[in-house]
Amino acid sequence: MTVYDDRLAALQGAGRLPSVVAGVARGGEPVWSGCSSALPGVGVDSAYRIGSITKTLTAVLVLQLRDEGLLDLADPVGRFLPECGYPDATLRELLAHTGGLQSEPVGPWWERVDGGGVAELLAANDGSGRVAAAGEYYHYSNLGFALLGEVVARLRGAPWWEVVQQRLLVPLGMGATSYHPPAEHAPGRSVDHFAHTLSAEPHTDTGAMAPAGQLWSTVADLLRWADFLASGHRDVLSASTLAEMAAPVAPADAYGLGLRVLHVGGRTMVGHTGSMPGFQASLFVDRDTRDAVVALANATTGLRPEQVPATLLGDVAAPVAQPWFPSLPPLPGEVAELLGLWFWGNTGFAFEWTGGELVARDLRTAELHERFVDVDGAFVGAEGYHRGERLLVRRDADTGAVRSLECATFVYTRTPYDPAVTIPGGHPGRP
Fold this sequence. Notes:
By secondary structure, the protein is of the alpha+beta class. Helices cover 24% and strands 24% of the residues. The chain has two domains: 267 residues, Beta-lactamase (3-Layer(aba) Sandwich), CATH 3.40.710.10; 81 residues, Lipocalin (Beta Barrel), CATH 2.40.128.
């Protein structure tokens, strides 16, 4: 085990991640890759969905066109998409998220449904969703990158994905990056906050929104992409143009032209984070040293992608956490009825089922409040103030539904001072 493996395992435990894979490069050369997983059949070579890291590929395609003289970043997008509802937004503004477009396209959440075609997307987004004037402030827009992808497609005379393959993946040797999940891929999962069980997330074809977040990739391919963002490639894009992309664009102070700018332990790194239902991703590189970090997880939340570079590179202390394993359904006995949010007076606690134990955590701090274990069919405190005490489940006399929990006269209710439950000392009035 290396220090990288230890830090990755800490990320897995702290984030409750079904699996997480990662890699580190120093001076442009991969020096480590690893996997920390609670699932079988997932390894460091597995493909994961990379979400908005896809935007960095779309941005590079736009800058290729600029360098070839086929467009100018000051051009309004309406020059290329006359039917667009935001014709005055410039390509630079779309790349930097400063065009004032809404964050998401009109319609159902695009990340969880199969997407339609470009004509449908353009017709649905008529400009009425604008949230700010151009240049007023930074406002992240997935819709804007869908428009950029269509600009690329029209100027190249080929679908966006074909252009990605021909002009990026082939010259860079990124053969493991794909539009759809390959045979060896991690399944998208969401972790139930209270039960710690796993739910499957959809692997959608996002259609016209694909340039904003569709792609799948591996640690090895993404380390190659990260080094390209640092040093360039004569058949793809020059290092000088990549330096232009990495410079923050006002009014944003941490976003350039399709690249996020992250300050980590005295160094500046560029790249992107990514998320799709069931997945999170992080890719950042120091363009001066060519040190890079990539991490991919198959969980909707929990990775905290912005903190991955500092954690794996050792610039901050790794979180202290035990390995995490999901709970396997069905949950035993009445456990499912006890999970969720409970209040002792006005103070909230999350009751969770993990490792075969019932655990209560303070909502404000996430610190352990109580830990209960099953003793002869009853929950008894094993850690915390209620150690040794029995947790009593109080049910409604008519419906049988769990109404409250009681332990050594402490009463827990689903809402603060639930008026339907007898509270020691009565119910407080308003001051």
